[in-house]
């Protein structure tokens, strides 16, 4: 099978799983995605999310997250969120605790409580053999023009591999 055909099939599978996951997320309001590129904004802080780990069920997984927003220059996080990340695609194995971090980009330095709440969607991939890592290419934002840097880095323990579509929902605590 040629590389072009493999790439086309992989893209079609990702789009199909994304449509299924979007249909499953219908009950939670969507977030307006800013049309401006992230480069026009300024990094105002970081969002850190922790997961207790879990088991992948071959075609996907659901994981609860505890997240904190920390402004640049602050000594301690100032805003807490409960998160939920759903993955649709290949997800096989079990992982221990993991941590994900994003840069928070905004067109204003006036970020208030709850301004990061909303839905973020995109591609995800990770591999773990005792220790490992992954990346989440998620885009979204809120009505206050806040967005997460599209790429997060993740560290985790366990034995697992996953790739597919991910939907992250953040709700203020």
From TrEMBL:
Superkingdom, taxonomy of origin: Bacteria
One Pfam family recorded for the sequence: DUF992
Record flagged with keyword Signal: yes
Keyword field: Signal
Signal sequence range: 1-23
InterPro entries: DUF992
Full protein name: DUF992 domain-containing protein
